[in-house]
Specification:
two-stranded antiparallel ribbon, 76% helix, 2% strand
Length: 247
């Protein structure tokens, strides 16, 4: 598992390099002059040229990219002239909400999908399996913004349990409770998609593991169905499940 993670991280490096090159070229080759935009409509040609020199826009594209990459490696991502703040500061402001949304969605999806997929494989053809098929179809078919509207209507408008919008930091006056209340609806709206995917993969992997000889051996030894299901079937089916969750 450690080697797999290291290999995946090593693959990310050239991908990020290629993406940075493409984005840099798109921005540099796009029509318009950034120096003229920064200077404003009343600026003279001399003022625009001075801004170009201060930003290094008068140099060749490889030199510009090298300067940007060197600063980016050191943590200097540039300055937003539109918001008058460093880019790193803008990213830091949005890091906590983004991480809270992403990690909460992932945790909720895994907690719902893995048990649901495992039970569906154990009782294949039963009501849990049919419910999983319904959730999967809905999760893959219904756009996430439609799901969000439905959740807002049910839990924010009809019963007024949860807020419609906004974000509260977990370290704010409201504490963890206010933080979670503002994220429950986004978590649910996004998790439905991943529950559909992870649960289907879990069902397929566990159902295949349940047909193996070691499962019959475990049952012949008198182990309970819960131990057979969790300790043997789910453990041996974990590789494709973990792979999907990691991706």
């Amino acid at each position: 598992m450690l080697r797999f993670l290291i290999n995946r991280l090593l693959v990310v490096v050239p991908v990020l390099f290629v993406v940075s090159c493409v984005v840099f070229l798109i921005l540099r080759l796009a029509p318009g002059d950034p120096a003229a935009v920064i200077a404003g409509n009343s600026a003279t040609n001399a003022e625009i040229e001075q801004i170009r020199q201060s930003l290094g826009l008068d140099r060749s594209l490889p030199v510009q990219y090298g300067i940007w990459l060197g600063k980016a490696v050191q943590g200097d991502l540039g300055y937003s002239y539109f918001l008058n703040k460093p880019v790193s500061e803008l990213i830091a402001q949005r890091l906590e909400p983004t991480a809270s949304l992403a990690l909460g969605t992932l945790v909720l999806a895994v907690l719902l999908a893995v048990p649901l997929g495992t039970l569906a494989a154990w009782r294949m053809g039963g009501w849990i399996d049919r419910m999983l098929s319904l959730i999967s179809v809905a999760g893959f078919s219904v756009p996430v913004f439609v799901t969000g509207y439905v959740l807002i209507y049910l839990f924010a408008i009809r019963v007024d349990w949860l807020p419609v919008q906004g974000y509260e930091s977990w370290s704010g006056p409201g504490g963890v409770l206010a933080w979670a209340k503002h994220l429950i609806l986004p978590w649910l709206a996004l998790a439905i998609i991943y529950v559909a995917l992870i649960a289907r993969i879990t069902r397929a992997s566990v159902s295949e593991a349940l047909t193996e000889d070691f499962i019959r051996t475990a049952r012949a030894k008198g182990l309970s169905e819960s131990l057979v299901l969790m300790r043997h079937a789910l453990r041996n089916a974990a590789v494709p499940i973990v792979t999907v969750i990691g991706i």
